[in-house]
Amino acid sequence: MTKKNKENKKQGLTVLTPEDHFHFECHQSLDCFTRCCCDITIFLTPYDILRMKNALKITSGDFLTSYTDILVGDAGLAVVALRMRDDEKKSCPFVTSGGCKIYEDRPWSCRIYPLKPESTDITEKSGKEYYSVMDVPFCLGLAEDKVMTVERWKTEQGIPIYLEMENPFKKITMNKSLSNKKIINKKIQEMYYMACYDLDRFRRFVLESKLLKLFEVEPETVEKIKHDDVELYKFAMRWLEYGLLGQHGLKVKPDVMEAKKQELRNK
Ligand code: SF4
Ligand code: SF4
């Protein structure tokens, strides 16, 4: 632990920068093995769901029905949580005696543990990241000798791709114009839910509705979103950025725009 962190610890707060060290090692021989996979609340990001449903080889719709609870956030938009089993321990549906059944595609919050991001909008804008080590009394991994930096932990746990995928989603959900109001329009709520979480249904919507006739979308993007979930997700974020924030994630085709103007002039 660095001098700075020791000082922070004395004040009841341990703040780590990416270069700082912490103690942690998780392995099957610890008595607490998989205890952390029970009775917890895990909120899922759109990219978590994309990875998990593909790991399980099921559709997003089946994944959402079988494994999640849908809640409503402050902005009136859906928030998805992993549903724990209805057993005595309230265990995660993916935990086995040998560990996580979908380890390679486990959610972001399972990967980053035992770290917790402490960055704010201001520190993030200035390119600074801060983390704390979670205080989980039963987690014996925190008392292990192995030491590593925050940065190395993030890399080893495959966090960078999750952060990259989270960025367009955060750009929408953290936008002040959205966080300061509550959306009550059911159609908008449903569109948001589909585009963020139910990607297979969103694909059908894109390819079967008139959406592609209304917007200028690069032909190579149209081809990719037919079978590539990551490209589809990126397109979904552009569509939400346009629809929810009024920003130029997408551009209306000139002839559609002209027809709309003419319609308004004729009214
Ligand atoms: S060491 Fe911590 S993270 Fe690993 S199984 Fe035990 S409680 Fe879970
Ligand atoms: S998804 Fe995997 S790592 Fe996360 S709580 Fe469930 S079993 Fe544990």
Please tell me about this protein's structure:
It is a single chain. By secondary structure, the chain is α+β, with helices and mostly antiparallel strands. It has two domains: about 5-165, no CATH class; about 180-265, no CATH class. The protein has helices at about 5-10, 45-55, 60-65, 110, 120-125, 150-155, 160-175, 175-180, 185-195, 200-210, 210-215, 220-225, 230-245, 255-265; strands at about 20-25, 45, 70, 80, 95, 100, 115, 130-135, 145-150, 215, 250. The protein has a three-stranded antiparallel sheet with strand order 2-4-3. A hairpin with a 5-residue loop joins strand 3 (about 70) and strand 4 (about 80). Helix 2 (about 45-55) packs across helix 3 (about 60-65), helix 7 packs parallel to helix 13 and helix 10 packs across helix 13 (about 230-245). It is elongated and about 75 Å long. Bound molecules: iron/sulfur cluster (2 copies). One iron/sulfur cluster binds near residues 37 and 106. One iron/sulfur cluster (SF4) binds near residues 26, 30, 35 and 141.
Shape: elongated
Biggest sheet: strands side by side, in what order? 2-4-3
Secondary-structure-derived class: alpha+beta
Regions with little confidence, pLDDT below 50 for 5+ residues = 1-12
Whole-number tally of structural domains: 2
Fraction of residues in helices? 40-55%
Largest sheet: number of strands, sense, barrel closure: 3 strands, antiparallel
The span between the termini is 70 Å
Quaternary arrangement of the chains shown?
A: single chain
> Overall mean pLDDT score?
91
Q: H/E order of the elements?
A: HEEHHEEEEHEHEEHHHHHHEHHEH
- Count the strands? 11
Distinct ligands, ions and cofactors found in the model: iron/sulfur cluster
Q: Give the count of helical stretches.
A: 14
Radius of gyration equals: 22 Å
Proportion of strand residues: 5-15%
